[in-house]
Amino acid sequence: MNNSTFAYETYIATTQEKLWVALTSGEFTEKYWFGREVKSDWKEDSSVIFLDKNGKTTDHGKVLKSKPYSVLSYTMQCVDDQTDYEQTPRVTFELKPMGSTVKLTLKHEYLSTNAFQGESEGFYGINNGWPAILSNLKSLLETDKILPEIVL
């Protein structure tokens, strides 16, 4: 990881089609993303909103790239965060078939070069949050169950 990118890879015993639905269906994201629903029509330049368990918008963004079954990229900014555009993180999922599994690569990156300097609260959240979310996603797709409660 450099000072502006967090990357994570995992291998999931599923199809690209099922993984794509899991990433883009708000009903499905609620199951593995600790109650958070991600909503969009997933067309480039469309908005993305993130809703908590109570329906409150916690984050918002814009779809940057949407190539079904292979690449999904969007910006993601907390509604309380007023940082400039260069500080808005980009989240990219790449799906690559590998036999009967799919290699899922996540990149959470900033244009700014030192976004993750030190042990900031943001760094802690990203460094611990994404692995928990993606582990839950993997478990749900492979076993139809989420992991026992994870305390971050």
UniProtKB/TrEMBL annotation:
<protein>
    <submittedName>
        <fullName>ATPase</fullName>
    </submittedName>
</protein>
<dbReference type="InterPro" id="IPR023393">
    <property type="entry name" value="START-like_dom_sf"/>
</dbReference>
<comment type="similarity">
    <text>Belongs to the AHA1 family.</text>
</comment>
<dbReference type="InterPro" id="IPR013538">
    <property type="entry name" value="ASHA1/2-like_C"/>
</dbReference>
<feature type="domain" description="Activator of Hsp90 ATPase homologue 1/2-like C-terminal">
    <location>
        <begin position="14"/>
        <end position="142"/>
    </location>
</feature>
<dbReference type="Pfam" id="PF08327">
    <property type="entry name" value="AHSA1"/>
</dbReference>
